[in-house]
């Protein structure tokens, strides 16, 4: 079971827990209510709960001209202890005035670490032959820079158009994401960190990331002596992830590589619909399922709520509420393991409501 070793926020004196809910676009509006239900189901082990509905996303942009209203950011900073973000439908083409609200929120709230556990519960791989390999890894993705600084230029030259993008890697960001990776690994049985990079080609940017993670404060004073460090070029890492995922424990990567690897890893356990994540900083955490807005199934009532529910548990665990998080995780695992109540993305026929209701019943049963 995933246990957060990242610095948990103080819980002893908290008398209430205010959670921002940002369903955003597509199936976010169907799965974030399921996450809210899961948190409400464990309310007896939490401070007084308060939920605040907030706006963001492509549809908000089309109505108001902004994808991330200033009121949303202000409310999160001033009134919320944590948040849950659903999904966003960002266009693949450039749209004047639009930028991804989730990327902006990570920067506004300094949520520099994206943490995505990928753990197999049953063979939901969809394969009919050999059983899927056992997967138990965490992708730790730097969340604020790399190509996601979105500094792009389109230049007209005598040979035609040229598109250029700035890639930013800093020592500060690499060091703090490296520290989180080592803290997570230290709390796990295998205690292994694999640094993902492409410094054989990008010797300056990826070279700085690689060298900085290797020089994380604490490595020199013996704090992480029990943690083994390995490295993988990103292309080799993707290949080995599909061939032998069991070799990985904690994978730490710059923003773009971490995004790709964590989504790819979801295929090993059946679906993006079962993978949770949190965006974490030093004083705020935001849960976020990784499946996207899925416009092809939005509104059909068949979206998988598991990723959002697991993200809620992961958020609570990071904040120090381990017991209620355990109960949510157990209910999810006990739902998935028999393989009888699955949404279509996992080969089943159950609806969002049916899966959510069953998980809630298993949570309630743990309190009786």
UniProtKB/TrEMBL annotation:
Family (UniProt): Belongs to the isocitrate and isopropylmalate dehydrogenases family.
Lineage of the organism: Eukaryota, Fungi, Dikarya, Basidiomycota, Agaricomycotina
UniProt keyword terms in alphabetical order: Magnesium
MF annotations from Gene Ontology: homoisocitrate dehydrogenase activity; isocitrate dehydrogenase (NAD+) activity; magnesium ion binding; NAD binding
Positions in coiled-coil regions: none
Domain Isopropylmalate dehydrogenase-like span(s) in chain numbering: 18-359
Protein name as catalogued: Iso-dh domain-containing protein
Xref: InterPro entries: IsoCit/isopropylmalate_DH_CS, IsoPropMal-DH-like_dom
Keyword field contains NADP: no
GO BP annotations listed: isocitrate metabolic process; lysine biosynthetic process; tricarboxylic acid cycle
GO CC, any one term: mitochondrion
One Pfam family cited in the UniProt record for this chain: Iso_dh
């Amino acid at each position: 079971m995933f246990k957060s070793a990242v610095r948990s926020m103080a819980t002893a004196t908290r008398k209430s827990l205010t959670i921002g809910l940002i369903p955003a676009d597509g199936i976010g509006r169907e799965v974030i209510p399921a996450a809210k239900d899961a948190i409400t189901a464990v309310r007896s082990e939490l401070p007084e709960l308060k939920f605040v509905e907030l706006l963001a996303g492509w549809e908000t942009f089309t109505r108001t001209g902004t994808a991330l209203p200033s009121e949303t950011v202000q409310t999160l900073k001033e009134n919320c202890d944590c948040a849950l973000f659903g999904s966003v439908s960002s266009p693949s083409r450039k749209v004047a005035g639009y930028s991804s609200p989730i990327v902006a929120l990570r920067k506004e709230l300094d949520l520099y670490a994206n943490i995505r556990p990928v753990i197999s519960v049953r063979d939901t791989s969809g394969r009919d032959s050999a059983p899927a390999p056992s997967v138990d890894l965490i992708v730790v993705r730097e969340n604020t820079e790399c190509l996601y600084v979105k500094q792009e230029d389109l230049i007209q030259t005598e040979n035609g158009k040229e598109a250029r993008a700035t890639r930013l890697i800093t020592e500060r960001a690499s060091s703090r994401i490296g520290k989180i990776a080592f803290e997570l690994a230290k709390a796990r049985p295998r205690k292994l960190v694999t640094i993902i990079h492409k410094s054989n080609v990008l010797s300056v940017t990826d070279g700085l990331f690689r060298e900085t993670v290797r020089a994380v404060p604490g490595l020199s004073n013996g704090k992480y002596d029990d943690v083994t460090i390995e490295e993988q070029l990103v292309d080799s890492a993707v290949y080995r992830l599909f061939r032998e995922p069991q070799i990985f424990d904690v994978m730490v990567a710059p923003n773009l590589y971490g995004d790709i690897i964590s989504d790819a890893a979801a295929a090993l356990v059946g679906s993006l619909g079962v993978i949770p994540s949190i965006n974490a900083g030093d004083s705020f955490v935001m849960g976020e399922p990784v499946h996207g807005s899925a416009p092809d199934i939005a509104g059909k009532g068949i979206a998988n709520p598991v990723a959002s529910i697991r993200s809620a548990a992961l958020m609570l665990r990071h904040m120090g509420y381990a017991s209620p998080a355990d109960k949510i995780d157990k209910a999810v695992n006990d739902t998935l393991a028999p393989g009888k109540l699955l949404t279509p993305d996992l080969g089943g026929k159950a609806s969002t409501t049916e899966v959510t209701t069953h998980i809630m019943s298993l949570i309630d049963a743990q309190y009786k």
